[in-house]
């Protein structure tokens, strides 16, 4: 296993389109996190899973965002009706437990035009 | 809720020492992480403090005072490759990050 994998690495989409990103965590990692990061800012928490259960979703997140982790392994993040303000780097991270270090994927850079 | 504060930028000379402070407020706290992020790359783990005190790991050390809601990352013998953003993150049942401190190391 080579670490957290995210796909695609880059996505350009037109405003109003739906996009879906995938994250494959490190095997046997129970925790999976999604973040959004813009230039000059730290990662902004979006949501996280403990196995297949989504334990928390940011209150800042609109209903256009949804995430799943159906079998407790890979996860998907979907953004519906994209807006220009959604342009950012979307980072996924996984950890063995909640009190161990999280490993990050290389991210998916979304550009909404 | 939670709030994390750290300085936006710091500049230091190669070979010097820099201390990056982080203060936090949260209703639930299980520890504090420090991550390093080079431009265009993903964050990488540096340290994790659960109990009060200093954790030393090579050139990098991290300190935590839970009663004061305060942590710092100490970078010694600075090298050019240490130029990066340093992120303070609370383990508050999820993982909440500060905005990061951009450290520039000059020759």
Description:
The complex is a heterodimer of chains A (113) and B (107). Chain A has 113 residues and is an all-beta fold. Chain A contains no helices and eleven strands. Chain A has strands at residues 5-7, 10-13, 19-24, 31-37, 44-50, 53-57, 65-68, 75-79, 88-95, 103-104, 108-112. Chain B is built from no helices and eleven strands. In chain B, strands 2, 4, 5, 9, 10 and 11 form a six-stranded mixed beta sheet that branches. Classes of the chains: A mainly beta (113), B mainly beta (107). At the A-B interface, strand 5 and strand 10 of A face strand 5, strand 9 and strand 10 of B.
**What count of helical segments of chain A does DSSP give?**
0
Low-confidence runs of chain B: none
Distance between the termini of chain B: 41 Å
The largest interface is: A-B, 23 and 22 residues
- In the predicted model, the low-confidence regions of chain A spanning at least 5 consecutive residues are none
Overall form of chain A: globular
What is the approximate shape of chain B?
globular
Average pLDDT of chain B: 94
* Quaternary state of the chains: heterodimer
Helix percent band of chain A: under 10%
Identify the notable features of this structure and list them briefly:
heterodimer, A: 113 residues, B: 107 residues, mainly beta, five-stranded antiparallel sheet, globular
Give the gist of this structure:
Chain A is mainly beta. In chain A, 0% of the residues lie in helices and 50% in strands. The termini of chain A are far apart.
Task: Describe the SSE topology.
The complex is a heterodimer of chains A (about 110) and B (about 110).
Chain A: E1 5-7, E2 10-13, E3 19-24, E4 31-37, E5 44-50, E6 53-57, E7 65-68, E8 75-79, E9 88-95, E10 103-104, E11 108-112
Parallel strand pairs in A: 2-11
Antiparallel strand pairs in A: 1-3, 3-8, 4-5, 4-9, 5-6, 7-8, 9-10, 9-11
Chain B: E1 2-5, E2 9-13, E3 18-26, E4 32-37, E5 44-49, E6 53-57, E7 60-65, E8 70-75, E9 84-90, E10 96-97, E11 101-106
Parallel strand pairs in B: 2-11
Antiparallel strand pairs in B: 1-3, 3-8, 4-5, 4-9, 6-7, 7-8, 9-10, 9-11
């Amino acid at each position: 296993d080579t670490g957290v994998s995210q796909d695609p690495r880059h996505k350009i989409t037109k405003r109003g389109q739906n996009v879906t990103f995938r994250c494959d965590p490190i095997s046997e990692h129970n925790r999976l996190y999604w973040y959004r990061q813009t230039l000059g800012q730290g990662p902004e928490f979006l949501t996280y899973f403990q196995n297949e259960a989504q334990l928390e979703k940011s209150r800042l997140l609109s209903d256009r965002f949804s995430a799943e982790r159906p079998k407790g392994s890979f996860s998907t993040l979907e953004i519906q009706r994209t807006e220009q303000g959604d342009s950012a780097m979307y980072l996924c991270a996984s950890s063995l437990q909640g009190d161990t270090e999280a490993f990050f994927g290389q991210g998916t850079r979304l550009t909404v035009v | 809720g939670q709030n994390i504060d750290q300085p936006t930028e710091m500049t230091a000379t190669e070979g010097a020492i820099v201390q990056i402070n982080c203060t936090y407020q949260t209703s639930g706290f299980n520890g504090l992480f420090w991550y390093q992020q080079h431009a265009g790359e993903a964050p990488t783990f540096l340290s994790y403090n659960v109990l009060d005190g200093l954790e030393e790991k090579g050139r990098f050390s991290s300190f935590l005072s839970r009663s004061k809601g305060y942590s710092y990352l100490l970078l010694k013998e600075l090298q050019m490759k240490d130029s990066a953003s340093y992120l303070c993150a609370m383990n508050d049942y999820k993982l909440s990050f500060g905005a990061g401190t951009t450290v520039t190391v000059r020759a």
